[in-house]
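In response to reviewer comment 3 from the previous cycle, which asked for concrete evidence that the modeling workflow produces usable outputs, we include below a single protein chain processed end to end. The sequence was submitted unchanged, and the resulting C-alpha cells are shown without manual editing.
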Amino acid sequence: MGEVVSVYLKIIIEFLAELYIFYGLVGFKLERSKYFILKLFLGLAAVLAVAFGVAYFYWLFGNTVWGRIIVYLFLFGITTLHFRLCFNENYKTVLFCCLLAYAAQNIVYKLFLILWCTGEQLGLFDSWGSLFELYYRLLYYTFFIAVTAGLYFLLIRRQSKRLSNSQINNRMLAIAFSVLLITVVLCSCEDIYFAELSELKENRYSVYEYFALRQTGNALSVVCCAVVLLLIVKSVEERDLKREVEYLQYTVRQSERQYEISKDTIDMINIKCHDIKYKLGSFVNGGEYSASAVDDLRKSISIYDSKIETGNKILDVLFTEKSLYCEQNGISFSCMADGEKLAFISDGDLYCLFGNILDNALEAVNSISEKERRIINIVIKVKNGMLIIQEENYFDGQLDFKDGLPQTIKDDKNYHGFGMRSIKMIVHKYDGELTASVADDIFHLNIIFSLDAVKN
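The workflow returned the following C-alpha cells.
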C-alpha cells in the first residue's frame, strides 16, 4: 500500500508543480499581500502536507470517476485559497487568475498526451528499453517548457498585466468555471475508462477506434481549455473597453469642471483688474492716498504673485490655477513640492494624477462651512531613496473603504468612483504604492515611488 500511495503522491506533486508554475506566470504582475514570501512558503508547506492525505484518498477512490474528480477539484480549491492568501486581490480576480492558470496547464498536458498516444500507437518508443523513464522525462519536460513558453509569450504575458481589477464579468466567470468543470469531468472519465481499454502499455490500443476516441477526447479537452482562455481574454478586453468608455466620460465631465474653474479664475482676475483700474483712477483724480487704500491696492495686485514654482512645468500650471481657485473660494492651499523628481511620469499621467487628487480634495473641502477647516496640504519630497507624495484635507461625513480606496457616496458609481481608481492605476503603472486613510476627520493620501526602481 505504501508504495502505491507514494506513486500517487508523486503524481499529485508533479501536477501541483506544473500548476504553480502557471500560477507564478499569471500572478507575476498582481499586487502582493503583506509578508508575501512567508505566506508563499508556509502555504506551499501546508499544500504539500495536505497532498499526503489526498494521495491516500487517491489510492482508495482514484480508480472511480467521482474519486478522480474530487481529487483534482480539491487540489484546485486549496491552491486557489493559497493564491488568495498571497495576493492582495479580491476573490473574483483570484478565481479568474487560477482558472486561467489551470486551463493553460491542462492544455499543455493534453497536447502532450496527443503526442504521446500517437507515438505509443505507432511504437515509436519501444526501443527505449531500460532508459524509458529517463527519455520519457526528457521528452515531457522539453515539451512542457516549450509549450509553456509559447503560451506565456502569446497570451499569458499580455493578460497578466490586465487581470488586477475588481470589475470582473460575473457571467464570463461563471461560464469559464463551468467549461473547466466539464473538462475535469471529461479528463477523469478518459483516464479511468481508456486505461481499462489499453493493452500491454497504457495509451496503446489494439482497436483503432479506441485510439481515435482517446485522441478525440484529448483534443476536446484542449478545445474546452482554449475556450476558457478565450473567454477570459474576451472578459478582460470587454472590461478594458468599458473602462475606456468610463474614462472618456470622466474626461468630458472633468473638462466641463475644469472649464468652470478656469472661468471662475478668469472672472476673479477681471474683478481684481476692475478694482485696480477704479482705485488707480481715484488716485489720478486726486483721491486720498491713505495707507488703507494703498494696502487694499497691494492686496489686489498680490494675486499675480500667486504663481507656484515646483520645478515641474505641469505642476506649476496646475497648482497655480488651483491656488487661484482656492483664493477665490476661501480655501487655504499649501504646497511644498520637489516637482523635478516627478520627471519619470509622463505629462499626461502627471496632470491626470494630481488633477484627480486636487479635484477630490476641493470637492471635499467645498462642502465644509468652517473656514479654519477649509484646508488642502500637498507635500512632495524625497526621503531615503523614496519619492513621497502626501495630500491631506478635512472632510465632512463618513468614508467607507474597499480594496484600500475610499468609496463614493454618490449615485453614479461609475463616474464618481473613477477618480480614485484612475489615481491608483497611474501609481501602479509606475510601480508605486498608494495608501489612503482617515483620522480625526482628515483624509490622508500617501503615494510612494522607489527612485532606484525608477532609474532601473
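The mean pLDDT is 81. We consider this sufficient to address the reviewer's concern, and the full set will be provided in the supplementary archive.
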